[in-house]
């Protein structure tokens, strides 16, 4: 049985971690534009680990409508993604971390 204080501490740490990651990611991503980021290569180890492809093979699922894309407001076909920091992904791409944006 988990003590109440342990549960509260866990919830506080988890909430703090989520807020920190969200704000940190937003700050880091917003400081660069997609044009400044190198494009993620499909055959790189990080892309392969999440089965990233530049062109989605699943109808209705692509980076453009993924919750994790960080569109910089430009019309650039390559945009930052929260899953691949320091890289840009093709808006028509896909990876196994795909999460649909809320309707
Ligand atoms: S998490 Fe995957 S599907 Fe979503 S934007 Fe990034 S690369 Fe694309």
TrEMBL record:
The family note in this entry says:
Belongs to the high-potential iron-sulfur protein (HiPIP) family.
Instruction: Output the Gene3D superfamilies linked to this UniProt entry.
Output: High potential iron-sulphur protein
Pfam families membership? HIPIP
Report the leader peptide range.
Answer: none
| InterPro entries cross-referenced by the UniProt entry | High_potential_FeS_prot, HIPIP_sf, TAT_signal
Q: What does the subunit comment say?
A: Homodimer.
Q: Which UniProt keywords apply?
A: 4Fe-4S, Electron transport, Iron, Iron-sulfur, Metal-binding, Transport
Q: What does this protein do?
A: Specific class of high-redox-potential 4Fe-4S ferredoxins. Functions in anaerobic electron transport in most purple and in some other photosynthetic bacteria and in at least one genus (Paracoccus) of halophilic, denitrifying bacteria.
Q: Mind listing the GO molecular function terms for this protein?
A: 4 iron, 4 sulfur cluster binding; electron transfer activity; metal ion binding
Q: Coiled coil where?
A: none
Location of the High potential iron-sulfur proteins family profile domain: 34-103
What species does this protein belong to?
A: Photobacterium malacitanum
From which domain of life does this come?
Bacteria
Name of the featured protein? High-potential iron-sulfur protein
GO BP annotations of the record are: aerobic electron transport chain
Q: List the PROSITE patterns hit by this protein, alphabetically.
A: HIPIP, TAT
């Amino acid at each position: 049985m988990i003590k109440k204080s342990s549960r509260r501490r866990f919830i506080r740490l988890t909430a703090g971690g989520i807020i920190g990651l969200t704000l940190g990611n937003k700050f880091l991503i917003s400081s660069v534009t997609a044009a400044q980021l190198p494009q993620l290569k499909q055959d790189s180890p990080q892309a392969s680990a999440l089965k990233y492809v530049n062109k989605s093979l699943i109808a209705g699922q692509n980076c453009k409508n993924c919750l994790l894309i960080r569109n910089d407001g430009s019309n650039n076909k390559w945009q930052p993604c929260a899953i691949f920091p320091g890289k840009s992904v093709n808006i028509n791409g896909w990876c196994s971390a795909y999460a649909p944006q809320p309707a």
